[in-house]
Amino acid sequence: MALALGVDTGGTYTDAVLIRDERDVIASAKSLTTRADLAIGVGNAISAVLAQANVAAADVTLASLSTTLATNALVEGQGGRVALVYIGFKARDLEKHGLADALKGDPALVIDGGHSHAGNQAMPLDIAALEEFLGSNTGISGFAVASQFATRNPAHELEAARIITERTGAPVTCSHQLSAKLNGPKRAVTAVLNARLIGMIDRLIGRAQDTLCDLGVTAPMMVVRGDGALMSAEQARERPIETILSGPAASIVGASWLTNVENALVSDIGGTTTDVALIKDGKPAIDPAGARVGGFRTMVEAVAMRTSGLGGDSHVHVVTEGLAGGVFLGPRRVLPVSLIAAEAGDVVHDVLDAQLRSATPGEHDARFARIVPGIPSDGIGAREAVLLERLGDQVLPLDQVLRTRMEHSALSRLVDRGIVQVSGVTPSDASHVLGRLDAWDSAAAHKAMELFARKRVGSGDRLSPTPEALAQMIVDQLTKQTALTLLETAFDEEAEDFGIPPEQLARHVLMQKGLSGHRGLLALDAALNVDVVGLGASAPSYYPAVGTELRCNMILPEHAGVANAVGAVVGRVTFRRSGTVTSPSEGMYRVHLEAGPQDFGDSESALALLETVLRQEAEHEAKAAGAEDIQILVDHDIRTARIEARDVFVEGMLTVEASGRPRVALG
After folding, report:
1. Does residue 318 form part of some domain?
2. Which helix (H) or strand (E) holds 24?
3. Which of 569, 593, 621 is the last residue of a domain?
4. Which own/partner pairs from 465-470 qualify as long-range (CB within 8 Å, at least 24 positions apart)?
5. Which residue intervals define the domain Hydantoinase/oxoprolinase N-terminal in the entry (predicted)?
6. How far is CA 424 from CA 222, 449, 468, 531, in A?
7. Does position 667 have pLDDT exceeding 60, yes or no?
8. What's this model's pTM, rounded to 2 decimal places?
């Protein structure tokens, strides 16, 4: 009998499921994600699901983890302090290609070096400048190295990585190890994001493995990649960027397993994000351009998914423009007031009561801050250090934390690093006020909603007459923004090009009038012409209204709240490796390998060597992840040009896929 344990660590909850023989979900459980020590939440969820199923930990034959932490970190701009070593490029490229945004003020070194398109050295690597840079920058959690045409010849990236490792001992991400494609700046962005995530994902996996061991689970641990396939925990630690969209991808796999739908949009609402993807012919599509998360387009293979900063714990903002006003949600996640009150007790209630007694609303009413223990604070500035000292180990109202306008940006930087958590009004609080949710402190949620309702809009009137009316306004806004996200995805995936960006089409007045069934001189009707599978713990609460808004069939499967944990254990181990053969001159065929270019006199020999190497690499990775019954697929993309009535070889790209079941897989 195979007994598989799936765990998903999200921004708010950690979910666990047990599946027997790939047929039945025999138990599921939830526990709050404990960011200060992720092992606590993981352990609580696993212990609960084992107790519910009445099985021994030693009986588990496969354990697998999916996580939204990488996705959430990039959406919210969080992660460790990193440094980029940018070889052979121009300094202006940092601004031109979005690298400055990815670095978020972290240091970068632009030095001579790099190679040509053919793999020949363009300039020698400036080792002296690199060593000087390493000596003057401390507190770096990870380095990213990107060299010009490194996918043609990675020698300079490898040499720079060797020097960095020897001098600092910090983890190094080389861009050529993440993608075999050209486009150096995009590879550099991917490497920077990978370096930023290493510490966070390493802590998660390490603590998860420790927890499994402490509980008596001896089965090997797998991790879900962004394309829904499985990898070993050790592989995920080396390439955490590949866990971008891990949780959402697992939810798509889980949705397919739970519903057997052939064609549908899947919408997964969590605490931080809403993730929407299309299942077509029973399979989720892979984004050929690479995963796009948090405004960054990466070179990581992942499910084609639209991720927006919209969830149950999204920050609620007051819209003051116009006379009517209103609210808008996200993209940042904040800690719900009802949750921080449940954890901090009387401290939060005393502050809320004092703010309610004030005759005038305050800018920071119903907002709190606290330090997350155990998160490194190396490299922070003087203003950030003052705020940390002020907070200490307390939960403080935000108006006591921020004393000058200049401290606002310092607090934002601490939140970006994950060092500080901020609490505020969220849809989860609104659900507590409306009686839809009773998980935390409903009384605190009601007080916070009353404070928020006193805020003034453009007309000078209160935002809302009652806390209950404001709570409904927030839930209605969540419905509206979710519907727009689904429409954007549908337009993006539509076969016909309407000539207008999906974001504009979703909001177009004719589209919105059609959804409301306008009747005048014109009769306008519009609807989403595909089923929607709603996932997430709060999906049954929020998504029926979304289905009504879009006039579509909404499917809410059993176990929708733990679909990502289900997907974590029903996937396959799959690895793809790609490589290129070019023709620098007539009669010469160059294979671009990790060890350096190799030349041949005919294309057949060059392609044969490349296929052999890629097969070995892909199969080795699959075996290292614990796969068995491995199948190999090879895709040839050969480009030729017609010259003087004959076809001339220009370039060949090979992709080898090795896929198999986990060695202790189900069934």
Report:
1. no
2. strand 24-32
3. 569
4. 467/433, 468/433, 468/434, 470/327, 470/430
5. 5-166
6. 35, 10, 17, 34
7. no
8. 0.74
